[in-house]
Structures are given as structure tokens and as C-alpha cells.
User: Fold Peroxidase from Gossypium hirsutum.
Amino acid sequence: MKSSTTMLPSNIANYASFFLLIISIILLIVGSKAQLNSTFYDNTCPNASSFVRGVIQQALQSDVRIGASLIRLHFHDCFVNGCDGSILLDNSANIQSEKDAAPNTNSTRGFNVVDNIKTALENSCPGIVSCADILALAAEASVSLQGGPSWTVLLGRRDSLTANQAGANSSIPSPFESLTNITAKFTAVGLNTNDLVALSGAHTFGRAQCRLFSSRLYNFSGTGNPDPTLNSSYLTTLQQICPQSGSGFNVANLEPTTPDSFDNNYFANLQNNRGLLQSDQELFSTSGAPTISIVNTFSSNQTAFFQSFAQSMINMGNISPLTGSNGEIRSDCKKVNGS
Assistant:
């Protein structure tokens, strides 16, 4: 009897140690994956998505382009060091802003709307919602408010403490690149060919500056002639918007049929050689490319496009987020805390 009583504390200690070991393993497994989930702010800022949507609804009344501009911010953010809000940081003593990288300078817009959203959230639930999550929520609201699909946004990203201007110059897909190069950039962040075509479908609304496609109108690949894949009547229209000696900052609709609605007309236009950017048209006009059949599917079936787009936005939003104790929750999206 005496010996069994003396063994009891040891057994309890063994069970406790074993239990703690199991808990540690579980936490290790869970912690090894990005902890994004749809209910992240349910207790701390339950109206977060409503604040985002409300500010964007207001902004759309005076700027029909803002939805396309906001989804582009999320895209350009995620392709550089993951979805961490780094694109929102201004220049400082320690930061070279991604805003000044070639794919962003004089073309990214909507930063004021992000600031308005952040102000509304800070007034309601200070220090809770990250700028990176604001971009993800704003992208979904922008698409659904203009006729596109809705999806459940996964949340819990934290904000970076720095930016990567060099990375923005090298990692963001360019409208001048070949399909092979763009596919490689998608692959580098874990996105596949279906993601590439679906996400390119965001060009179903918004505008692009002439300087991003004028070479197709006058001197494609140094030939002195227009891009032969351009529909001739569409070419004439674009040359009127973008004269050869004109400003490269005039804008044309990315999708000429329903330029302010989120639908699948973008893909029908590719089939008719009416893609605005080289990177758009190459999805359909690159001989033997696996993207052609996906374009055909999305053109004939808007539901298929919407479903793929929603899933691809979730996939993109999962690129290397900062979670847990990494990064911070910026109180001002333009600068790191304490700077």
C-alpha cells in the first residue's frame, strides 16, 4: 500500500508530461500553417467587413474605377513578400516604398479609400484590424458591389514592418511580358494556370493607361507595325484614345463592352482579339497554351468563372501572410507604428 502511494505522484507527473507533449505537438502542427480564418474578428471587431463595404459604396458614387483600383492594390501587395500590406507604406528613413516601383508608380490608386476605411475601423475597434486584411476585404467588396461574386474572406493577416521595392519591380506580372514569364511569376507564389486566367479576369472592369499598351498600337516588338492579334476596328478605336504623339497617361477601358461591371465579357473579348493588354490577349492567342481552353470555358460559363475567381482570390490571399506575433497591426497604413 505504501509503495503504491509513493508511485502516484510519479505517474501523475508522467501523464502530465505526456499531455503537455501532445499539446505542444498539436500547437506546432497548427502553428506551422497560416492561421487565417473567416471568424477572426467576430469577437474583437464584428462589423469590420461592413465598415469596409460602406466606405467603398460611398467611394463608388464619385469614382466608378475605385473597385478595380482596390483589387489591384491587393494583387500587387500579395505578389511581393506575401499579403502583408507592404504596398501601403510610404517612403521613410528606413523604407523604400513599393509605391515607387515601376508597376505601381503613377498608376496604383485608392490609397485614400484605404485610409478612410482604416480611420473608420480605428474609431470603432482600435488596433484590431490589419491593413493587409483591409485590402483583402476591400477586394471582395469591390467585386461583389459591381456585379461579381462574393466569397468568404479569410482573415488574420498582420502588417509588415518594411517594404520591398526591388521585389515589386521583379515579382509583379507586367503587361509587356510573355505568357511563359507571367506563368512563372504565378508559379513562384504557388498559383497555377487556372488561377492565372481567373485572376486576369479582374480586367473585366477598370482602366489602363496608354503607356501600358501603346506599343501594340504602333510598334509591336519593334516591327513598326501594330500587334497583328489586335482586332482592326478595336485598333482604330484605341489609336483615337492613344495618339502616337499623345500623353501616355490617357486611359482606356480594360474591357470595352461593359467596362464598369464585373462579368465574363473580358473572355469573350479575348476570343475576338479585343484584349487591351498584351498579357491579356496572350492568354488566348499564344499557340498551344493551356490557358486557351480555360478562356473558352469562362467565356461560355460565367458561373464557372465566378466560382474560379472567388477560389483564386482566396488562394492569392493565402500567399505568405504574417500571423501570430509576426509583424504588427498598423494604426496608420502608410507607416509602421512608432515612426
Q: What stands out?
A: The first strand starts at residue 207 and ends at 209. The two ends are 67 Å apart (CA to CA). The domain at 47-171 is CATH 1.10.520.10 (Peroxidase; domain 1).
